[in-house]
Amino acid sequence: MIKNLISLEKISIYQFSELLDLTLEIKEKPHRYKNSLSGCTVAGIFQNPYFLTQVCFQVAVTSLKGQPLIMKNTHIQTQSQNLSEIACQCLDQWMDGIFIETKNHGHIIELDKFLTIPVANAHSEIHSPCQAIADFLTIKENHRDLTSIKLALIGNQKNIGHSLLLASSLSGASIHIASPKEKQPDPQVLEAAEVNGKQTGFQYEISEEPQKAISNADIIYYSYPNQNPSLFNSILMNSKQDALFMTSMFPEEWKENRIQNIPSKRRLFFRQADNRLHILKAIMVSLIRKKK
Q1: Does residue 32 fall inside a structural domain?
Q2: Rounded to whole angstroms, how far apart are CA atoms 179 and 157?
Q3: 136 vs 184: CA distance, rounded Å
Q4: Are residue 264 and residue 284 in the same domain, yes or no?
Q5: Given this model, what pLDDT does residue 251 score?
Q6: Which CATH number belongs to the domain containing residue 154 in this structure?
Q7: H or E segment to which residue 144 belongs
Q8: Which residues contact 49 (CB under 8 A, 6 or more apart)?
Q9: How is residue 88 annotated by DSSP?
Q10: pTM for this one?
């Protein structure tokens, strides 16, 4: 099992598959895991007050009989924005695990170095592993064989691109990422994905051409906040009629980007959000229950 979850770069193909299987078991048989965090306190450190992210964290911890503690980034920072070593030492003694959402991925790296307790990256500007694993669980529930699907990512969020690329490489799925050049995956992430791909057979393509990316795509992942709605309308018109749509955008962004125009039977948005809860449970069981 995994010890920390900073990004999917450090997760093996076996661990990724095992995590998906564990999540399905927890989802189908939650009573078996209802006491997994009994006696544990888990800190959730959030820089952005996203409603769904915080509620999902609290529900996941309490449903496993743990005690959630919500904190802000500023609680563990000095005036210079660096992490407080004393605060980190206290958390290491008082907590059983930490989930952190931040716009400074360096803070997650520092926590991982300072602490002996498990650390999980709930979301950062560089990686979003929890969301990517939840998304691939959603895809797996619709397409049993992940190696047979083509995923098209249309977006400008580098963290989503990094994590979906790595998840594709771990599962054997094919992915085409269409994004502006400055938002395309970093070389070290591509290298990590290629290493996995030698074993899984995954294929990828990176471009700036959304229409090329969606050609024959089974899943279209739209992650383009504040983009001209005409782009999305064109994607919807030119996609396969049975292609399913996913997104990393929050509901309040849907109307502006017109993704509410997608026929309901082709949307996976709610299932994505729901599976985020189950993935968090599985990560907590893997990271924290094993430590007790």
Answers
A1: yes
A2: 8
A3: 20
A4: no
A5: 61
A6: 3.40.50.1370
A7: none
A8: none
A9: H
A10: 0.93
Report d(CA 21, CA 73) in Å as an integer. 32
Tokens found for residue 277: 């809860």
Q: Which of 289, 276, 233 is nearest to 137 (CA)?
A: 276
As a whole number of angstroms, the distance between CA 139 and CA 92 comes to: 36
Per the structure, the count of domains in the chain is: 2
Q: Kindly tell me the burial class for residue 231, based on how many C-beta atoms sit within 10 Å of its own C-beta (0-12, 13-18, 19 or more).
A: middle
Tell me: do 238 and 139 sit in the same domain: yes
- pLDDT tens, position by position, 102-161: 998 988 998 888 899 999 999 999 999 999 999 999 999 998 789 999 999 999 999 999
109 plus 28 within the same structural domain? yes
The pair of structure tokens assigned to 151 is 């995923």
Same domain, 256 and 153: yes
Please indicate, yes or no, if residue 45 is contained in any of the structural domains.
yes
By three-state DSSP, how is residue 253 classified?
helix
Q: Is 272 helix (H, G, I), strand (E, B) or coil?
A: helix
Closest CA to 95 of 79, 77, 74, 111: 111
Return the structure tokens found at 272: 């994505």
Q: Write out the H or E segment, with its range, that includes residue 139.
A: helix 129-142
Type of residue numbered 85: E
Phi, psi of 154 (to 5 degrees): -110, 110
**204-to-1, 137, 168, 173 alpha-carbon distances in Å:** 27, 20, 9, 9
Q: Where are the beta strands (DSSP E) in the chain?
A: 41-46, 67-72, 97-101, 119-123, 150-155, 174-178, 204-207, 219-223, 244-247
Taking alpha carbons only, the member of 281, 237, 288, 219 closest to residue 61 is: 281
- What 8-state DSSP symbol labels residue 216? T
Q: Domain of residue 232: give its range.
A: 130-273
